[in-house]
Specification:
Strand order of the largest sheet of chain B: 1-2-3-4-6-5
Distance between the termini of chain B: 14 Å
Oligomer: heterodimer
Number of helices of chain A: 4
Structural class of chain A: mainly alpha
Largest interface: A-B, 41 and 56 residues
Distance between the termini of chain A: 60 Å
Largest sheet of chain A: 3 strands, antiparallel
Number of strands of chain B: 6
Helix content of chain A: 40-55%
Radius of gyration of chain B: 17 Å
Order of helices and strands of chain B: HEEEEHEEH
Shape of chain A: elongated
Largest sheet of chain B: 6 strands, antiparallel
Helix content of chain B: 10-25%
Order of helices and strands of chain A: EEHHHHEEE
Number of strands of chain A: 5
Strand order of the largest sheet of chain A: 4-3-5
Strand content of chain A: 5-15%
């Protein structure tokens, strides 16, 4: 059991292993871990409140930096683009756009967005 | 009727299709050959929920509006990509000069999934500033010293509603 800044965190696979043995030698390690954990929980809670892919991208950038956020979100956009090109993009009520098909999915046919504000 | 030409889908059939497809399930009405249908959709589990309204008159092109949320507020003053009309926002979902949409095609299998796709790229555009959904825009024609060109002749926003 972990109590405050010292204690035992038994390993699941190896008998006698203590994941936090170094905390007992240097309490700053425990403090750093709990600070990191609190920040991670806070960041994930904030991400969970995002409404819209744009907000997700902005919040990801705040947590992980702009480049990793762009990479993650651009990957999603590229997957949709690739599925659209190969005619494997569908839409469902609960999940929105999906690659492939599913029960009660509707195929996204080829289209060309039009309009003067391009 | 021209032999070999496919018949337009009746408005009542569009109504039934929209109602029975889970993606477009919502509410609407039919009056004097005019269909109005509203539903909610979200292009991804991380996306907002959008209120959509489809309007269509028999044999004319469908019009798709985003009722909620206010896309202009989300765009923070930037010009929205691929829209015909600004308030409420009417989406440009297909090229009117092609056969992408014809009156015998089902709305729930054409403009409804295209709307989800537009919203997906819209949310991407909001943060990235880049429209990644591709597309075209009508040619601009300028006054060139007496020869007045055919400005946006095929564009539905030119005041004509294209009869397909």
């Amino acid at each position: 059991m972990v109590h405050g800044s010292s204690g035992t965190l038994p390993g699941i696979l190896t008998a006698g292993e203590n994941f936090c043995e170094k905390w007992n030698r240097d309490s700053r390690r425990a403090q750093a871990f709990f600070a990191w954990h609190a920040k991670a929980v806070s960041d994930l809670s904030t991400l969970a409140t995002a409404h819209g892919l744009d907000e997700v991208r902005r919040l990801l950038a705040r947590v992980f930096g702009q480049m990793p956020a762009n990479k993650a979100m651009d990957c999603l956009t590229e997957r949709v683009g690739a599925a659209r090109t190969t005619n494997r993009l569908s839409v469902t009520r609960p999940a929105g756009l999906i690659v492939g098909t599913a029960n009660e999915a509707t195929l996204v046919r080829a289209n060309t967005f039009f309009g003067k504000d391009c | 009727m021209i032999i070999g030409q496919r018949k337009s889908l009746p408005m009542a059939q569009h109504y039934v299709n929209l109602k029975s497809n889970r993606v477009s399930a919502g509410d609407g009405h039919l009056r004097r050959g005019r269909l109005e249908w509203s539903y909610e959709t979200s292009p991804s589990p991380l996306s907002r929920v959008y209120g959509i309204r489809i309007e269509m008159q028999q044999d004319l092109s469908p019009e798709v509006f985003v009722e909620t949320p206010d896309l202009h507020l989300l765009a923070e003053g930037r010009r929205l990509p691929h829209v015909y009309q600004r308030n409420p926002v009417r989406l440009c979902l297909y090229h009117p000069g092609t056969t992408e949409w014809r009156p015998w095609m089902r709305l729930d299998q054409t403009v409804v999934p295209w709307t989800s796709l537009w919203l997906f790229y819209f949310e991407d555009w909001l943060a990235s500033g880049e429209w990644k959904g591709g597309g075209e825009h009508p040619p601009e024609t300028r006054y060139d010293g007496g020869n007045v060109g055919s400005r946006a002749a095929a564009h539905p926003d030119s005041g004509e509603r294209s009869r397909a």
